Amino acid sequence: MTTAPDDLLLPNGRGNITRLPKVSLHDHLDGGLRPQTIVELADTIGLDLPASDATSLGAWFADSADSGSLVDYLKTFDVTTAVMQTTEGLERVAREFVADLAADGVIYGEIRWAPEQHLTRGLSLDEVVEAVQQGLDAGVQDAQNGGHDIRVGQLVTAMRHADRGLEIAELAVRHRNNGVVGFDFAGAEAGFPPSKARAAFDYLAAHYFPATVHAGEADGLASIQSALVDGRALRLGHGVRLAEDITIDSTDDEATYVTLGVLSQWVKDREIALELSPSSNLQTGAIAAWGDDLIDHPFDLLYQLGFRVTVNTDNRLMSRTTLSRELALLSEAFGYDLDDLERFQLNAAAAAFLPVEERQELAEAISAGFEEA
């Protein structure tokens, strides 16, 4: 599912989640394709697919991604990236991506993707960034023509195993005035800490360019520490395993005491945003230490303790989800109401890679939209 239904309501029936203004910070371009688009683009380049029709293909992605392993989860991207190797393919995917965000009530979205994975048909790094931006611009214009105000920005991603971090950091900075708002570091997490791409992060810091780093998803606290220290991350991509640094003790009189470790206290005190993606975290086994159902996710623990939690989709195709659906699932699991959902959006607005004045305008638009709900 890539377009949101019209009837995602809070459990108490108060508030249509789909129509609420939302901010999306962690959403992969190559994880948000429409199955029908994949079928059509694959036909133009002669690519064999695991299924020939859109419905079956969508089911294949969801089933394959629900593996309990980030490594296996990532294998599904071999199919999506294969149809994103031409200017036409990149532009179409980016344009539809914005349309689907707009249909889900998103008013600001940061769209992450790795240009280095889209060069097999002769395009250069700069050409693929430009193609995606053309598609995003067209999508924004389409949305505006349909009466929906949406802004988007690119997060240019370096794949941690490919050792091209500095080159991709330079690419991101080169396009900072052409739609790129930040840098991301992603891919197989264990064994590839940000410390191995120190030159890239030094370059970004020297050019005052913000970074988010995937950490605390498929690896633990050392990975998060490296993201903050070596990667100078302003946000943590997922970061769910930060909860490993939180100790909960119960006494005989049924009192409960919570103790934060040095790392988790640092993240909380500096309001470093956690880009949590509930459905994806279940699929990849990121919350296996706590359980295998949404109610086991440490999202609520982190929220109640005052961390800057945000709600994200990660990959809408693989998780068959939307941002509205993620919010609905959390509301059902933890009893959240409109005030909670508004807080998640305000957290995301505060963490967006935008100038402070624009973040404030975004926050005002969110509050106004929730007041009307």
TrEMBL record:
InterPro entries: A_deaminase_dom, Ado/ade_deaminase, Metal_Hydrolase. One of its GO terms (biological process) is nucleotide metabolic process. One of its GO terms (cellular component) is cytosol. Residues 21-367 form the Adenosine deaminase domain. Its EC number is 3.5.4.4. Keywords: Hydrolase, Metal-binding, Nucleotide metabolism, Zinc. Its cofactor is Zn(2+). One of its GO terms (molecular function) is metal ion binding. Belongs to the metallo-dependent hydrolases superfamily. Adenosine and AMP deaminases family. This is adenosine deaminase. It comes from Homoserinimonas hongtaonis.
